[in-house]
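FIELD: query
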Amino acid sequence: MSKLPNLDRIREHQANERTFLAWLRTSIALIGFGFAISRFGIFLRQINAAFTQQETTINPLFNSENLGIFLVVFGILTIALAAWRYNQIFWQIEQGDYRPKRLPVLIMTGVVIIFGLLSIPLLLIRNQIPQRPSSAPKQNQSFRIR
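FIELD: result
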């Protein structure tokens, strides 16, 4: 006798996989945004230094590089949490004892809101670019041939 699989159970596993893949896409986006934010901050400092010929001062704690690093780490933790959660739900479906939990969703929502709020000052705070002194261009003295 061949036993046909339960269609409801199959659908539940497929929904679990889709949820895992959504978390995977979210973690990849977080890692990508973190990398871009970190590198773009370095690029802006280099451009500023090239135009002003002065080293830019940055806050050692609150800057785009640190925000980018935190986003990358958070993306890595997100995929680890997603894999753990996928496996946990897989076994709950197999045992017929699935109970949804809201805590992981609330934690992720809170952390993303915090990162969003931390990025607002980085967007609003602008370093004042010092103006170059407006002095008359120096003229080279030409040598006279005698």
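FIELD: remark
Residues 119 and 125 are 10 Å apart (CA to CA).
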